[in-house]
Amino acid sequence: MRIISHWIDGHSVLIRGELLEVLDPATGNAVAKVALADAVTVKQAVDSAAAAFPAWRDLPSSRRAQSLYAFRDLIRDHQDELAELITREHGKTLDDARGEVTRGLDSVELACGVPGLLKGETSEQSGRNIDTISTLHPLGVVLGVTPFNFPVMIPVMMASIAIACGNTFILKPSEQDPSAAVRIAELAKEAGLPDGVFNVVHGGQETVEALIDDPEVAAVSFVGSTPVAHSIYRRAAAAGKRVQAFGGAKNHLVVMPDASIEATADAISSAGFGAAGQRCMAISVAVAVGGVGDELVEALKRRAEGVLVGPGYDATSEIGPVVSAVAQQRIRGIIVDAKASGADVVVDRSTEQVQGYEGGFFIGPTLVDHVDAKDNIYRTEVFGPVVSVVRVDTLDDALKLIHDHEYGNGASIFTNSGGAARKFQREVSAGMVGINVPIPVPVAPYAVAGWKNSVFGDTGLNNAAWKFFTQPKYITSRWDETVSGIDFGFRPN
After folding, report:
1. 46 in a structural domain
2. Would you say residue 17 has pLDDT above 90?
3. What angle, rounded to 10 degrees, do the helices at 205-213 and 226-238 form?
4. How many Cα atoms are found within 13 Å in the side-chain-facing hemisphere of 168?
5. How far from chain centre, in Å, is Cα 263?
6. Among candidates 61, 91, 180, which has minimal Cα distance to 470?
7. End-to-end Cα distance, the chain
8. What is the distance between the alpha carbons of residues 274 and 272, in angstroms, rounded to a whole number?
């Protein structure tokens, strides 16, 4: 069976430690084994990144940009190959996987602008014959810990900015779908990145903790669940590391009475059921305002019943499986609990099987109406193709509902009222907001960042990451030989 090894110092390394099976979620069968790093492997990766840092830091930003342009072109040239790796180990459809790679390319293109984006500031004559300037400096070795649901987009989003800033990067991808990470590292080497600038280390919690604890690692960027995000944030902060940790979500889409029901139902279905609901920006709650609930639920019901479920590499499939048997059973348990709590499960395709793929981890689109804010299905992040409908009387009620939830990643409103849209975008408690847009992830020149328990740390990804992956230096200088004399006061320049 194929062994997925670590990528350190520009090549695959000797396998050390335990081997873990990597499964095809559509069949449940093992397609590879991934090596889990031991302490020796972790140290090898950190030492390689630390050794490569001085030369990469001192390279002119325009030279770093040249390698990133080549990296972008290689990712584009290998888009189909990367999509197939995603689909084989994650399960999402090939079309969805290609879209993920395209989103990753947007981040690399942003990073290619480093000569113009990584600029400091200058104030001449900030004092008598004194100038003050600020410059931005890389941190050193930085760590990215990325989730299973975007095995290309999130690693590339982190690595491209980190590397453009002059840092060296260690990627710890999800052990559930690790092949794409290694292929990205191979393409980075082909693009001209020196050995040690981009490294990949596989493993679980112990590996992550060993990487965080290493004194050479200066910063940690994480995307995953909220409990793990909080744990990583605390551990890294306690060690004096710079850290940003992005956690879970419960994204609401508010449906106003004046919204087009058919268009809104299309949007909710796409954003709620797409990728089998395994997106941190998936719409999992539809908030029906006023008397729109019955019509909305009927429209969602028709769509949920018609979605074609199957293996992601089948062109006829509209959604694939969830990533694992554990995820499948957890989602099914949440739906059973919702029934017991009194919610109305309008469409339940959670236990259906796909003919010929009975061992796969499939969950069909499921629609749950009359969900209460106290219900577990509302409070928890389901991370599956399940849409809950909550009914409220007014927009203010909807805003309070969103405000009271612990998560604040994204929220959307569908309406034809400019007044309602403006009130929503001003008052909603979420970091990414959509107006008639169901998945409001901003383009790369803006930031990806949530609020509340969806993020720990005060910086985002993409264009907000320039500040995270650099540290400022402020220089005050005077070239004036006429200045003399002792002054024991602390005075302005």
Report:
1. yes
2. no
3. 30
4. 31
5. 27
6. 61
7. 69
8. 6
> Would you give the distance in Å from CA 294 to the centre of its chain?
34
Residue pLDDT, tens place only, 236-276: 999 999 999 999 999 999 999 999 999 999 999 999 999 99
404: phi then psi, degrees, rounded to nearest 5:
-80, -15
Closest CA to 184 of 63, 92, 101, 64: 101
The residue-averaged pLDDT of 398-417 equals: 98
Sheet architecture: strand order including 386-392 = 344-347, 366-369, 386-392, 283-289, 251-255, 410-414, 432-435
Helices then strands, counting H and E runs in the chain, come out as 16, 25
| Residue 431's CATH number | 3.40.309.10
Residues 6 or more apart whose Cβ sits within 8 Å of residue 18:
35, 36
User: Do 362 and 272 lie in a common domain?
Assistant: yes
Q: Give the contacts of 208 (CB within 8 A, at least 6 positions apart).
A: 145, 172, 232
Does 281 reside within a domain? yes
**Alpha helices in 274-391, H assignment, sequence order:** 293-306, 325-340, 376-379
145 lies in the same domain as 290:
no
Find the angle CA(168)-CA(104)-CA(206) to the nearest 5 degrees. Answer: 50
For residue 69, give the amino acid letter.
Y
Query: How far, in Å, are 67, 80, 104, 109 from residue 76 at the CA level?
Result: 14, 9, 10, 11
User: Can you read off the two tokens belonging to residue 468?
Assistant: 């995270």
pLDDT at 492 over 80: no
Determine contact, residues 62/112, Cβ cutoff 8 Å: no
Task: Tell me what percent of the chain is helix, strand and coil, each rounded to the nearest 5.
Answer: 40, 25, 40
Domain membership flag for residue 449: no
Question: Cα–Cα distance between 262 and 283 in angstroms, integer?
Answer: 16
Q: How far is CA 53 from CA 9, 69, 489, in A?
A: 12, 20, 42
Residue pair 176/167 in contact by the 8 Å Cβ criterion: no
pLDDT tens-digit series, residues 126-184:
988 899 999 999 999 999 999 999 999 999 999 999 999 999 999 999 999 999 999 99
- Which residue type does 296 have? L
Please tell me the distance from the alpha carbon of residue 11 to that of residue 472, in angstroms, as a whole number. Answer: 33
Q: Catalytic amino acids?
A: 280
Give the whole-angstrom CA distance, residue 5 versus residue 292.
Answer: 53
Q: What is the CATH number of the domain that holds 225?
A: 3.40.605.10
Quick one: tokens of 182?
Answer: 């290694």
Residue 250 to residue 239: CA distance in whole angstroms = 30
Residues 446 and 318 sit within 8 Å (Cβ to Cβ): no
pLDDT digits (tens, 9 = 90+) for 356-391: 999 999 999 999 999 999 999 999 999 999 999 999
Looking at the fold, whether 332 and 346 belong to one and the same domain comes out as: yes
16 confidence band (pLDDT: 50, 70, 90): confident
For residues 400 and 408, give the distance between their C-alpha atoms in angstroms, rounded to a whole number: 12
Q: Domain containing 146: what range?
A: 3-247+454-475
Residues 267, 243: one domain? no
